[in-house]
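Sequence in, structure out.
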Amino acid sequence: MTAKDKPHHHGALRPALIDAARAILAEGGTLTLRQAAARAGVSHAAPAHHFGNLSGLLTAVATEAFTDFTAAMETHRDALPPDATDRDRLAAICRGYLDFARNNGGLFSLMFNADDIDRSAPKLSRVAQGSYDVLAAACAPFAATPKEAKALETAVWSLVHGYAQLRFEQMAADLHPVAAGAPAFDAILDLLLAGVAAQFASPKP
């Protein structure tokens, strides 16, 4: 370990490099191992030692980002009052999804669009599935069968992810801002749920 690395000894170098990578992405920069090392204030060889290559670093960043993404959805859901309805909980999950996308554009793009991530990595697969499970659980009360549940999950995921993605592509200005409580999104979600109510069984009590 070089003198430059000493501020990050005792296991702190790996999280410091992930934090540096996240900061670069937050600023809209293109991430490289050298840039991450420079931002963390360590030798240029340090990232390769901990992550192997850029894919390893990106995978670690995405894994941490999915953990934060799940927490954002759960935080919005858990802030609801005890008498919240199933619709309220689903809308809150979606707002958490949109809020994360709005506040973490670089990470959001990395998580879902980057080609250099090892999506077969066990930890990444586990936390990404956990994010989906939060959304799926919020959809479950509106479907009577597993087949209906899967169809609804796909519809809601397509809606909320597509809505978030529009922000990045600067399309459909009337749908902006993509933010927590955006009235346009709530209206679209209500239209989707109205269609579900007509097509599927009524929500379970």
